[in-house]
Structures are given as structure tokens and as C-alpha cells.
Amino acid sequence: MQLGQLQEIEPKLNEMGYQIIAISPDRPELLEQNIKKHNFTYLLLSDSKKDAARAFGIAFRVDEKSLKMYEQYGIDIEAASGEHDLILPVPAVFVISTDGIIKFEYVNPNYEVRLDPDILMAAARSALKK
Predict the structure, then answer these.
(1) Which of 33, 47, 72, 81 is most buried (CB neighbours < 10 A)?
(2) pTM of the prediction?
(3) What pLDDT tens digit does each residue of the chain (130 aa) get?
(4) CA–CA dist 104, 96 (Å, integer)
(5) Residue 92: which residues within 8 A CB-CB, separation 6 or more?
(6) Domains plus CATH for the chain?
């Protein structure tokens, strides 16, 4: 799921009682620029040291082939995070209850395949019933 898609469904999730917390490997200064640029209204946190990614078990080391691909797209992951670890999180979405229980998770190592917003909405509705 892309950050812009979260923005689109945020009102519906809020109506159900959910709060969106997005976590990015980018450093806080870059996130602040993106928040202003895209008018994100949900909480967007920096995990530039990848502590949350490690805790969720979704951190991976970028291989040379992928690093070169990022560079071709003009993406400098070390500059973005401010770290020199070549670690990124696998794209993931979690629905977590107020008692800290993960009710739904979507993790896909193929960054090109993102969770459809309709599936997240269905998972959020389902989690309320449990």
C-alpha cells in the first residue's frame, strides 16, 4: 500500500476507530517534506535506524543488484535514511488491536506488489468483529 492510498482511506478507517501510523526508513527531515508536500494527515514516523523493521522481522539487507537498480532510479537509500547499513524494511501493513495483538498482516518481499486498499478495509472490518 502506498502512502497516498492510506490518505484516501484514512477517513473510513478513522470512522471504524483506527489510527493510521505509517513508518518509513527515511530520516525525519525527508518525512517532514513529504508530509507537507502531500498533506498527509496520519502519523508518519521515521525508522531511519530500522529498529521497528527489525522488531517486526521485516528488515533486509539490500543486495548489490538492487542497490544499482535504486541508483538508476535516483534513489540513494543511505542518504534517505542517513545511515550506512543498506537495510530496508519489506513493505508491510499491520492491523493491530488496542491491546497490541496483530489481527492482520500483509508482508510481501516484492516491493512492486502492494496491498489493495479494499483488502485492508475488509481486514480492518473483520478485525473489529473478533
Answers:
(1) 81
(2) 0.86
(3) 477 888 889 999 999 999 999 999 999 999 999 889 988 889 999 999 999 999 999 999 999 999 999 999 999 999 999 999 999 999 999 999 888 999 999 999 888 888 999 999 999 999 998 6
(4) 7
(5) 56, 58, 105, 106, 107, 108
(6) 3-125 (3.40.30.10)
